Amino acid sequence: KQWYQRRVAITAGIWDLHRVANGGEVLENYPAPLDTINVFVRGGSVLPVVWEESGIIPTAELVLNSPDISLFCYLDDTGAALGTLLIDDGYSENKDREVHRVQFKISNQQFEIIPVTMGTKDMVRVVSSVSIGGVVLPGGDVEVMVGDMKQCDVIYDASSRVLVVKQLQSEPGKLVTTDTHSIVTWKA
Length: 188
Hints:
five-stranded mixed β-sheet; globular
């Protein structure tokens, strides 16, 4: 395995690459192996991701195979983040084709899933997990609610300031999906 190193300049703001870095700094000799792409994410972003062993999934396969999505959220210096997921059929060129558009919003210790436009039922996804970077919880104990229920698994790592919520359920036995307005709150 060959290793290379790069000089990386980070502009002002909060950035994340499995750690929170303040902007305006230079990372000298940052590891840059040839078989890895380093991704720096600006605070305030929400990234919907589909994980599969073979790598990134094209949009058409995303619709056809209907996998779950995971959300990676990176808070800015005000504790907020915003992102949008757009799912279409992946191959139609018709400008009027159906799309499923969902907005993800985080502020004031609240994560919100907001369906904006509805596509076909096969465009709906289960939100399998939400990882939120930049969460500071004194004492490390956390209570997470989906609506008015505690139906989820929670992991909080105080050293990395990451809150991970899995198996989100809007009601017993019903997982949170992208076609229903859902609110997830947390507190210490």
